Amino acid sequence: MYRPSSFSTIYARSDCKFRLKHLNVYLLCSDLRLVNGSVPKEGRVEIYYDGQWGTVCDDYWDDADATVVCRQLGLGEFGLVIEQPQFPKGSGKIMLDDVDCTGQENFLVNCSSRPWKENDCRHSEDAGVRCRDILFCLNEPCLNGGTCHERANSYTCSCPENFAGYNCQWQKPSDPPSTTPTHRGKYPTTGLNIDDEPQTDSTLIYDTRKTSLVTKNPLHSVVSPCEELPFLLFYCDY
After folding, report:
1. Nearest-CA neighbor of 72 among 52, 47, 93, 38?
2. What keyword terms does UniProt attach to this protein (predicted)?
3. Which of 155, 164, 229, 238 is least crowded, fewest Cβ atoms below 10 Å from its Cβ?
């Protein structure tokens, strides 16, 4: 069983000459490591070449490249790109640039790239990877055309303009709120009783003599017409 390093560095060497016995460090035979990640199984990508460790530039870097890194290190089925400041920039040589994997390779050096040490990058462009055993977005949890974004241990959805909710499951009203009242009343009260009824189509307008507000479900919670309201004048259209 693989165990993440307690030193926030997951690394390996092809010569397999390491003889580390620390319980929280493990060894794989490859020339790759992840360093300075904020959580296990992620960090800046570094590769060993010509007797030294160096970074990989993020030009053309995508999830297919990240997946190959995770596969080579044995850290999960899927790889995701992460960017600074999720990890600090590196130092020293930039070993690879323009890495372009299909996602099917077993080793990063099997992917196309520029020749070793040939690059036009700075360390602000160092490539980073997060390895995962599952992808939350794989089952397309975001509804109504929403875009799914993987996070460290969850996902978020970017919703189209007319939808809201964690999974973009709520449709916003397309028509403007009505200002024509069907009920009117003056009620000096001290409390507000709110009932969350997302399928109710109602409009509330109130006037405190200083300001007014129009709110329509499901953008806001619904106030039932007969319940106490903390303002002087209200209209309910339902």
Report:
1. 47
2. Disulfide bond, EGF-like domain, Glycoprotein, Repeat, Signal
3. 238
Residues 100, 60 contacting (CB under 8 angstroms): yes
Q: What count of other Cβ atoms lies within 10 Å of the Cβ of residue 124?
A: 9
- How far is Cα 180 from Cα 182, in angstroms, rounded to an integer? 7
Is residue 36 within 8 A of residue 7, CB to CB? The reply is no
| Beta strands 212-216 and 183-186, pairing class | unpaired
Give the list of residues 6+ apart from residue 235 with CB closer than 8 angstroms, or none: 179, 181, 182, 183, 184, 203, 204, 205, 206
Q: Which two tokens stand for residue 196?
A: 């969350």
DSSP state, residue 146: P
pLDDT (tens, 9 = 90+) of the chain, 238 residues, equals: 333 333 344 444 444 444 444 434 444 445 899 999 888 889 999 999 999 999 999 999 999 999 999 999 999 889 999 989 889 999 989 999 999 999 999 999 999 999 999 999 999 999 999 998 888 888 888 999 999 988 767 889 999 999 999 999 999 887 655 555 444 444 444 444 444 444 444 444 444 444 444 444 444 444 444 344 444 344 444 4
Residue 104, C-beta contacts closer than 8 angstroms, at least 6 positions apart = none
The number of residues in the chain equals 238
End-to-end CA distance of the chain: 61
Residue 6: strand pairing partners: none
Q: How far, in whole angstroms, is CA 203 from its chain's centroid?
A: 35
